Amino acid sequence: MTIVVSSDISSDSASRAKHAADATPDLISAVIDEAGKLAAEVIQPTNQNGDREGCHYNPDTHEVKTPEGFKEAYKKFVEGGWTALDAPLEFGGQGLPHTLKFVVDEMVCSTNLSLGMYPGLTHGAISALHAHGSNELKQTYLEKLVSGEWTGTMCLTEPQCGTDLGMIRTRATPNDDGSYAIEGTKIWITGGEHDLTDNIVHLVLAKLPGAPNTTKGISLFIVPKFLSESGERNPAFCGGLEHKMGIKGSATCVMNFEGAKGWLVGEANDGMRSMFTMMNEARLMVGMQGLGLAEMAYQESLAFAKERLQSRSLSGPKNPNGPADPIIVHPDVRRMLMRQKVLNEGMRALALFTGHQLDLSVAHPDESARASADDLVQLLTPVVKAFLTDEGANNANTGLQVLGGSGFTTDWPLEQLVRDGRIARIYEGTNGIQAMDLVGRKLSLKGGQLVRTLFRVLSGYLKGNPEAPHREELKGAMGALEKATMWLATGEGNKPLLESKLVSARFYFEKLLPEIHWLLSDIVSGKDSMMDMGDDHWAA
Amino acid sequence: MTIVVSSDISSDSASRAKHAADATPDLISAVIDEAGKLAAEVIQPTNQNGDREGCHYNPDTHEVKTPEGFKEAYKKFVEGGWTALDAPLEFGGQGLPHTLKFVVDEMVCSTNLSLGMYPGLTHGAISALHAHGSNELKQTYLEKLVSGEWTGTMCLTEPQCGTDLGMIRTRATPNDDGSYAIEGTKIWITGGEHDLTDNIVHLVLAKLPGAPNTTKGISLFIVPKFLSESGERNPAFCGGLEHKMGIKGSATCVMNFEGAKGWLVGEANDGMRSMFTMMNEARLMVGMQGLGLAEMAYQESLAFAKERLQSRSLSGPKNPNGPADPIIVHPDVRRMLMRQKVLNEGMRALALFTGHQLDLSVAHPDESARASADDLVQLLTPVVKAFLTDEGANNANTGLQVLGGSGFTTDWPLEQLVRDGRIARIYEGTNGIQAMDLVGRKLSLKGGQLVRTLFRVLSGYLKGNPEAPHREELKGAMGALEKATMWLATGEGNKPLLESKLVSARFYFEKLLPEIHWLLSDIVSGKDSMMDMGDDHWAA
Question: Per the database record, which ranges form the Acyl-CoA dehydrogenase/oxidase C-terminal domain (chains A, B) (predicted)?
């Protein structure tokens, strides 16, 4: 097959599509079609073997070989211009909307999450460098990262610290030539070493001499595997690979920086700000990973449910000439498929809404509209990350359940989707960290302005749509959200200790038992919303 | 180490402990202590290698080799008398309470689910044979199954049918000597072939000539690997192993019966009844698997949370001399640990209550008390299976989340617990099938008597404990349960089809959105029930 999208959009179309507002529906539609082809025909065929074969580490050369097929698929991904989709025009990017990038991300993550992570992390490095790097650094690195000729990494975690980055020990000592000597060990570095490209560009958090032992003493450095001018090998070596439950085709590296040459990105001791440029972008991408895997799980379980014949429908045979009916006729199977479908639709709507706000925050001509859009992006980033990965994982698990025993075997793709997706609830800040970001930071930011912006949008919708279906339920949910927000803003004091069993009991009765009222309303709302989906509408 | 339990209880104690009422607290306590030692010192050390090595199939000999260490651990399990714990006295069993067996099951499943499945399935075969087999069959097989010298299997599923057993194709043709020639292929047969014992006894569902093509045309046969008199190899061969997401040390076999000699167990065409003797027992055991894995996940994540230093407590340093506080001080980590702990406690209480009812249903001197206990066992069996495996899987996943990125690596046991536990929601009837059994069968059985018995027990508790903590919440929950039961008993009619998006929306608003009221009450009930657990009480 031929990936024609590059010729369509990378030259004249790209210069036309300066930002979100310029991308026409036809162009968007063509890009999405081509992304679908790429995902189905180039990326997906590498997925199962990537899991089975995994990555190979050579301790003598410190080199990593990716699974068979990855290099060729990545080459096509690069040739198609996909690494450049929403990257800045001045460095060879196509400048298309971020929203469109989200759509493509979902497809890539659906079809091979491990492979998608190499360009995924690169994208974050591009953004950090573009936002915070000097002109010289941008000129040296951006074009090759945008084109996909090189990839990028994000080197944060160390053995003694993940969440608590104030504790990092990697040191940066100034050299005479304005560069720094980077010394230290980083772990869990995605794409830290691989054979997809000739060079790898590491963005590394480290401490300058005398910097305080807090997050205010961290600086960001760019450390290439090979120095761009001399071609010399920089002593930034992979020391081994992690053995993981999933995403086995993604090289998760221990990286040893042994006096490697690096250059400061942004201001000294201001590395957390640059890091968050990468991190916020990565969090949105991880949300799309959760959705992508859930969507693939839905498609696979739906297909299985239509094929597998077992037992008869309660309302009489639906496949009278066969030995049994397809299991999609059974209420419990439909319940599972409905839950997958509805939550996937809702997650996608939330993600694309957020992507659209991201585009508006950059490209809207009105300043206050840009600010409002930015409020929403900041508020919703932890929600997209946590909600799409928690419910994405649940949906992948539900998909496996639809297949029954088959789903537990490696003959079907579901168990890999479940394993691959498990990490998304953890990396780029666990979902508990996302909750802290939302409640501890975003709700009080600018005196509560972010959440007020959201309520204004929701109220506007309710006011403007007096006949909308389920308007009253939405209003009720919004009321509950307002109450919860209010409660979180005012807080509550401590109470004295109780005996451990009483604490257990209270936790249960306060936190878990009230689920019963939800379950009750689920039960008495009956089966119609499960059973009424038309046969042709499962993929709609 | 020495397993002393056998000498303690297998001879004089066992003959003393005829049934539940005879087991003294001291005896129970000694058995539990010894089971704990066995689990920790003999079984657990085989767990990780069992997962990594898996089982080996030799296509030339049709033989299966279990992972290294399994054979020795199984030998100690047998020598300790553990296969005989609650088995009938007259065939060498110890006749101890089923409740005690549940406690031991939890420990075995906690420490190596794969290994535990070989004797676990044997136990079901013993029960079916004891309840339905002829005296001759019992004399031939029971003693060796009870002693663990032989193991048993349950051969139900075929490629074209799992849930829908009416569709089985395996045939039983009468031989001249009163035996039958069994011909057909069974799949997903746990322990169908292995090297732990010299003989394996298969209990096989098959159809007699002319039997109807429904579940009313199924008979149960006993088919030994080696014929007990002649020692001749019976043509019941393993045709291969499944490749699975987890429980890799458990040999999941394709079994080809090529005219193998079998004997009828129970009446012709009444095989489903015998099968359900095994199945109901297996369902309770699978519930304990879910709990066992969840308990191990809790212990592992709790230990990690006490060791791992990261960030400071919001209320000031708790480990001022260290570089950071242990993560157990953080509210979100405590929330996860509390959820694990509380649900594990609740699941264990439900399981042991059910086990106790099982003992009462056999051993209580009063006939109506036996009947009431049996009502509760029947009603609660699908609840124990589904609730303990769903929430067990959730708890194992929560445990992984506590470890963050470490939990996703194979350096820690959490990811194996999650993978191993995933099957428990599926086998011995998926949890959707359990829901059907509860709602479609158990609620209406004997005109609704089973659930009325449960309400009587709950009302009795409320009446007898006017000062019980959380009495009002429990009353409210019971009211919701009564309403739901009533609604399920009366049902509701169909409504016309709607457009697919409207169906999606309705499903969401009816089934999923009401969760928000639960979440709201979770939020406004505050943090005390998470934060008040005393440091010494996490294991209490």
Answer: 269-438
CA distance A245 to A455: 40
Judging contacts by C-beta atoms under 8 Å, the chain A residues touching residue B159 are none
Instruction: Say whether B477 and A516 touch across the interface (CB within 8 A).
Output: yes
Q: What is the pLDDT of residues B194-245, one digit of tens each?
A: 999 999 999 999 999 999 988 999 999 999 999 988 999 999 999 999 999 9
To the question of domain B151-270 being in CATH 2.40.110.20, the answer is yes
pLDDT computed for residue B499 by the predictor: 57
Of A332, A508, A520, the CB nearest to B346: A508
Minimal CA–CA distance to B524: which of A198, A481, A41?
A481
Judging contacts by C-beta atoms under 8 Å, the chain A residues touching residue B502 are 469
Q: Does A309 touch chain B (CB under 8 A)?
A: yes
Task: Determine whether B295 is exposed, middle or buried from the number of CB atoms within 10 Å of its CB (0-12, 13-18, 19+).
Answer: buried
In chain A, what residues touch B533 (CB-CB under 8 Å)?
A: 500, 503-504
Q: Which residue has the tokens 């040739």?
A: A79
CATH topology for A275-466 is Butyryl-CoA Dehydrogenase, subunit A; domain 3 (1.20.140)
CATH 2.40.110.20 fits A5-269, yes or no: yes
Q: Is A163 on the interface with B (CB under 8 A)?
A: yes
Which residue of chain A is at minimal alpha-carbon distance from B307?
A: A160
- CATH fold match for the domains A5-269 and A275-466: no
Residue in chain B nearest A344 by alpha carbon:
B504
Q: Which amino acid is at B165?
A: L
The residues pairing with B263 across neighbouring beta strands, listed in sequence order, are B222
- Chain A nearest-CA distance from B411, in A, is 8
User: What are B226's strand-pairing partners?
Assistant: B233
Helical residues (DSSP H) of B328-470, grouped into ranges? 331-363, 367-402, 405-408, 414-422, 431-436, 449-464
- Compute the C-alpha angle B133/B137/B142, nearest 5°: 90
Facing A430 at nearest CB: one of B404, B484, B513: B404
Q: Which of B193, B295, B391, B428 is catalytic?
A: B428
- Chain B, 182 to 211: residues with Cβ < 8 Å from chain A are 188
The domain locations on chain A are: 5-269, 275-466
SS3 A88: coil
CATH code: domain B275-468 is 1.20.140.10
Q: Compute the CA torsion angle A22, A25, A27, A33 (nearest 10 deg).
A: 150
Those residues with Cβ within 8 angstroms of residue A72's Cβ, 6 or more apart along the chain or in another chain: none
The residue of chain A with its CA nearest to that of B435 is: A332
Structure confidence at residue A408 as a pLDDT band (50, 70, 90):
very high
Query: pLDDT per residue over A73-86, tens digit each?
Result: 999 999 999 999 99
Using CA atoms, how far residue B507 sits from A292, A522, B481, in Å, is: 22, 9, 22
Q: Which stretches of chain B drop beneath a pLDDT of 70?
A: 1-22, 491-508, 511-513, 526-527, 529-535, 537-540
CATH entry 3.40.50.1100 includes domain B5-146: no
| Gap from B52 CA to chain A (nearest CA, Å) | 12
Q: pLDDT by residue (tens digit) across A250-266?
A: 999 999 999 999 999 99
A428 a catalytic residue: yes
Task: Please give, rounded to a whole number of angstroms, the shortest distance from the CA of B331 to a CA of chain A.
Answer: 9
| Strand boundaries in A93-170, DSSP class E | 150-155
Cross-chain CB nearest to B497 (options A423, A492, A534): A534
Handedness of CA B398, B402, B405, B408 (dihedral sign): negative
